[in-house]
Amino acid sequence: MTMSVVGFLVLLVIAAIAGAVGQALVGFSRGGCLAAIAVGFVGAYVGWWIAQTFKLPPFLVITIDGQAFPLVWAIIGSALFAGVLHLLFGFQRPYRRRGY
Question: Whole-prediction pTM value?
Fold first, then answer.
């Protein structure tokens, strides 16, 4: 099944929103919009996998050009994925400037 360019752009915007909300829930934000899109897409797969594993119903599914995007599970999966990223990369010391 093919997706139109407009449908793909709408899917990118929805994934960015889901990724940004997931990152905000965890308090971890590395990168900008592209990172939020990536976290949103990975979160959608993680959330979908969790829902399928535990036989949970889909909530707030948005259909774009025949492709279903489970928004609630994407946000939950994004928060879990951002939490894992925060555990792996979030405890770096901040850059401090030396005053000479």
Answer: 0.80
